[in-house]
Structures are given as structure tokens and as C-alpha cells.
Amino acid sequence: MNLLAFETSTENCSAAALRDDGEVFSINEEAPQKHAELILPMADRVLEMAGLEKGDLDGIVYGKGPGSFTGVRIAASTAQGYAQALNLKCAGVSSLEALAMQALYGTDESCAVASIDARMGEVYVAVYERTGKYPKALLEPCVLKPDDAVQAVSSALGAHGAYAGGTGTEILYAAGLNRNIVKRSQFPDGEFIVKLGKVLFDEGRTVDAAQALPLYVRDEVAWKKIPQQHPERPLA
């Protein structure tokens, strides 16, 4: 299965391609405010690196958030555009899931605390356990004040050890998170987005282009599907 992935939920802009032989090609660039102009050329580059054409793709994967509101919209809309144009399915992977798997990569630890600075004195946070092919949420993605987040993490982990990942980690340390929970990843990487997306495709957990929506966590943010964004351009 050939997959293309986009991840733009943080300061890092990333694209990745997974080829049907299992090899992954990814590009990352820390470039705040430039994701919209970078993501399409980056997608072209990873496809070229993988020796793939757009017509070779079997599906689209995107980092659905949470994270920057603008960033998660860019990833979702880019996925929608590719999937609609190529008549492909999409799979959305949480940026926190990717951070957790990055933190656990190459270790024997089973749990990870993933967090992203949500601004406004809050953090996006989740706790995952590595079980089977896809991480299991011990604490579902949520947005909390740092003190509340540390309590929620401690409750979710119990006696389990863990690693950490994400830009919210230092905020959690300052609020009292056990510093033995060592940080091992900073930004979600398209490589892990596409690898987790492959699991979702294998399990049939995919959606049509119009349903490739962001995960905001904050309820007050509105998002429109393709027909609502462009009412003059109906889905084929």
C-alpha cells in the first residue's frame, strides 16, 4: 500500500510517503506560519524520493491534531483535496498519538505522555499505552490547565513508567510532572503519522474526503466540510 501523509499541527511542517515495500520517506521543517506554502512542495518531494506518482497512491493520511487551529486545518484541507482529486480514502492520526510513538520508539517502555502547548495557559495532553499495533489511550486527548493536566496524567499512569513527547512537556515539568518521565520527542513527525495511518488503513478505519476533519479538542472552533467550504464545487 502506497500512502502519503501530512502533519502541520505544530511549528513543524512534515510530509511523508510510505511505499508498499514498507519503506518510509519523510521531510521535516520547523517553519511557523509557512505551512500552507510548504506542504504541497514537500509532498511532491517525498513522492519523488519514494519514486511514486500521485496515481500510485492508495490512500491519504493526515495529522488531525490537536494543535494549532490553523495548522490542523491545513493538514485536513490538504488531505481532503488530495483524496477528492484522486478518489481515495483518508485516515486521521492524532498528533498526540504520533508524539507518543516517537517517544517510545527504540525503547522497551510501554507508556508515553504526549502534550502540546495549547497557549492561553493550557496544554493538550494524552497518555498512551503501546498495545498491539496501535496505541491505546489511557487518557484521551484533552485540553487542561497544567496543574490539572499533571494530576490527570498521574492518575492515568498509576504505577507505570513512561516517556514523554511534545512541546507541552516543559510546561508539565514546571507544574510538577515527574522528571523521570524523560522527554524524547519534540514535534509530531510525518513518518509516525504515516506508519500509524497504515494500521488504520489495514483495519479499514478510514473515511471519505469530506469526513477528513480536524480534532480540535476545544469545542468552540467550527470547521466546514468540503461542500460547505466550496458550495459551488460539489463532490464528484
Protein topology:
Blueprint: E1 3-7, E2 12-18, E3 24-30, H1 35-50, E4 59-65, H2 69-86, E5 90-94, H3 95-104, E6 111-117, E7 123-129, E8 136-144, H4 146-157, E9 163-165, H5 169-174, E10 183-185, H6 190-202, H7 226-229
Parallel strand pairs: 1-4, 4-5, 6-9, 9-10
Antiparallel strand pairs: 1-2, 2-3, 6-7, 7-8
What does this structure look like?
With 236 residues, the chain is of the alpha/beta class. The chain folds into two domains: 3-95 and 188-229, Nucleotidyltransferase, domain 5 (2-Layer Sandwich); 96-185, Nucleotidyltransferase, domain 5, CATH 3.30.420.40. Helices cover 33% and strands 25% of the residues. It contains seven helices and ten strands. The strands form two sheets. The protein has a five-stranded mixed beta sheet, sandwiched between helices. Strands 8-7-6-9-10 form a five-stranded mixed beta sheet, sandwiched between helices. Strand 4, helix 2 (69-86) and strand 5 (90-94) form a beta-alpha-beta unit. Helix 3 crosses helix 6. It starts with a strand and ends in a 7-residue tail after the last helix. Mean pLDDT is 92; it is low at 220-236.
Low-confidence runs: 220-236
CATH topology-level name of the largest domain: Nucleotidyltransferase, domain 5
Main sheet specs:
5 strands, mixed
Principal-axis shape: globular
What is the name of the CATH class of the largest domain? Answer: Alpha Beta
Kindly report the name of the CATH homologous superfamily of the largest domain: ATPase, nucleotide binding domain
Radius of gyration: 17 Å
Average per-residue pLDDT, rounded, comes to 92
Estimated helix fraction? 25-40%
Number of E-type strands: 10
Strand content: 25-35%
Number of domains: 2
